[in-house]
Amino acid sequence: MESVYNAAPIGKHPDGLCLLSLDGGGVRGLSILYILRAIMARLNVERQEANLPPVRPCEVFDLIGGTSTGGLIAIMLGRLEMDVEECIDTYSGLSQKIFSQKQNRFGFGWKGDLKGRFSAENLEEAISKVVSDKGFNNSDPLDNGKPPGCRVMVCACARETQGTTRLRSYNLPGKPAPKVPPSIVGAARATSAATRFFDPVTIGNRTYVDGALSANNPIDEVEDEAASIWCPTTRDLKPHVKCFISIGTGNPGKHSIQDHSALKFLSETLVQMVTETEKTANKFASRWREQIEKKVYFRFNVQQGLQDVSLEAYSKEGIIEATTEEYLEESEVALRLGHCVQGLIDKQSVCIPDFT
Predict the structure, then answer these.
(1) Strand partners for 157
(2) What sign has the CA pseudo-torsion 33, 39, 45, 46?
(3) Crossing angle between the packed helical segments 84-99 and 29-49, to the nearest 10 degrees
(4) What are phi and psi of 192, to 5 degrees?
(5) Phi, psi dihedrals of residue 301, rounded to the nearest 5°
(6) Please, what sign has the CA dihedral across residues 129, 151, 7, 192?
(7) pTM for the full model?
(8) How far apart, in whole angstroms, are the C-alpha atoms of residue 198 and residue 210?
(9) Which residues form the active site (predicted)?
(10) Are 173 and 163 in contact (CB under 8 A)?
């Protein structure tokens, strides 16, 4: 598989960034991958017609940022350099292993304290196997110290402050490196340590729960991070972007639930997360309206059909795929996807000099 791909130049314009932002959403993260599969398939068809070899996301995007499910996918695509099909197969297997056995029905202990509904050990073992299957050691750092091609940034939530922490596969100039650098496994575990589903994870002297609590839609974090990397002085990222893609995990809707204190808390947390995700998307779209009109910024997110797919419903993969494919066939979505691919075609390579 690896020999099929290389980082052959894409298009004619080396002076624009391609950025990818991935939301959180549990098993519905497969919807992200089905959308990205459609984008990459169209891109590689265009490349084939130009007698160029196919490329993986890590050879197209300068920065991939994600939260929770999106963070895990970002690591698989960017740091482990998977193609989309491999990532789909891997994520599907992960979901089944992680969510097939509950260890706590409600996510609360008998004293009312938060407890993971699923085994954190199973999660870590599953992630470790994915990492080792790709030829890495479980202790290998997320940031290996090498000049990055595709940068990866994942969001986690520091339990002590409830603020968003960014874990990086690269060194950010002017920012001190963490005292205890996260491993690939540790970063994946930190970004996906959903309070309602898994126990927190500790790296060094910091304890993390998943980034969805503070940045389920990480688009603002990705924008700010890209500005810190490529235009730290002006902080004006827009002139430097060739294509900025944000992909959601589908709108799950809002459901009423019985007035059981634990379930009510979980329901309210999920509703708040969904509300904030859409609010963040709308605010960003308002700020980037000109870039939307110029076909530079794109947001893809299934709006109908995933309302009954809970975050842990691994058995509903078929519904997720069928619903996402229907969404991609909508004329307006298909048109935007085509424009999106043209933006990626115009991108020459991920090796872009600083714009400062």
Answers:
(1) 164, 209
(2) negative
(3) 170
(4) -105, 15
(5) -160, 120
(6) positive
(7) 0.86
(8) 9
(9) 68 (nucleophile), 210 (proton acceptor)
(10) no
Residue 49 has which token pair?
A: 């017609």
- With the C-alpha atoms ordered 95, 136, 183, 280, is the resulting torsion angle positive or negative? negative
Amino acid at 333: V
pLDDT one-digit tens code per residue, 327-352 = 999 999 999 999 999 999 866 544 44
Q: Taking Cα atoms as reference points, which of 17, 133, 20 lies closest to residue 67?
A: 20
DSSP 300: E
Question: What are the respective helix, strand and coil percentages of the chain, to the nearest 5?
Answer: 45, 15, 40
Of 169, 210, 214, 246, the catalytic one is 210
Q: What is the pLDDT of residues 26-45, one digit of tens each?
A: 778 899 999 999 999 999 99
For residues 11 and 341, give the distance between their C-alpha atoms in angstroms, rounded to a whole number: 11
* First CA to last CA distance, the chain: 37
**210 included as an active-site residue:** yes
User: What pLDDT does 157 receive?
Assistant: 81
Q: Kindly name the residue from 68, 95, 214, 246 that is annotated as catalytic.
A: 68
Residues 6+ apart with CB under 8 A from 51: none
What is the token pair recorded at 120? 């954190």
- The closest alpha carbon to 122, from 90, 92, 105, 97, belongs to 97
C-alpha pair distances (Å), 316 with each of 70, 249, 270, 330: 18, 14, 19, 22
Q: Is 3 a catalytic residue?
A: no
Dihedral Cα 25, 69, 93, 152, nearest 10 deg: 160
Q: Answer yes or no: are the C-beta atoms of 266 and 213 closer than 8 Å.
A: no
